[in-house]
Design a protein that fits this description.
two-stranded antiparallel ribbon; mainly alpha
């Protein structure tokens, strides 16, 4: 898997990109899909808000807003087809943010997460089966986005938190070298027994 999407290299940012992403999500039906804490679009916005609160750079914030566009290993509902939707998403949020969304959607969690904090950790693309080792920035992005997503689920779904909270805290403890201080603090606050 390549770290760069198929796009024109367009890199929107700021309010315009957030508005374009929000409009795309609404057009794709994210407001009509049920999700813990309300709808998928509400979850996506909360993940972006959390990343923003942690001081994440704009590309990661935009990726947080669109992280489920291709579906994920834990949420199979895709808003865009991964084979033909990449250019459309890149046009809305920029190629860097789209690359993060693609990485997140393609992540085979069982293979990737155990070694994510290691420099040579293997990433397995669940769409293609390809293996590679992402660079440090992409590993940090994947860790922060994963934490923001799972903490939102834990906060809005008590049964999810009861069932998965201890495993998530153990996983995020392994991710700690990749996480910003605000992200790690939220892990401890939201998942501590």
């Amino acid at each position: 898997m390549s770290d760069s999407p198929t796009s024109t290299g367009h890199s929107p940012s700021g309010v315009g990109a957030v508005d374009a992403a929000a409009a795309l999500l609404l057009r794709l039906g994210a407001a009509d899909i049920a999700h813990p804490g309300g709808t998928l679009v509400a979850h996506l916005q909360r993940v972006r808000d959390r990343l923003t609160g942690w001081g994440a750079r704009p590309a990661l914030q935009l990726a947080g807003l669109c992280h489920a566009c291709y579906g994920t290993d834990g949420f199979p509902t895709a808003l865009l087809p991964v084979d033909t939707g990449r250019a459309e998403l890149a046009e809305a949020i920029g190629s860097e943010a789209e690359g993060i969304v693609h990485l997140y959607g393609a992540c085979d969690r069982k293979v990737t997460y155990p070694g994510l904090a290691e420099a040579d950790g293997v990433f397995r693309d669940r769409f293609t089966g390809a293996l590679h080792s992402p660079g440090p920035q992409l590993r940090r992005d994947l860790a922060e986005l994963t934490v923001a997503n799972e903490l939102d689920l834990a906060r809005h779904d008590f049964a999810f938190r009861e069932r998965w909270g201890p495993q998530l805290l153990a996983l995020f403890t392994r991710f700690e070298p990749l996480l910003s201080q605000p992200a790690w603090s939220d892990c401890q606050m939201d998942l501590a027994p």
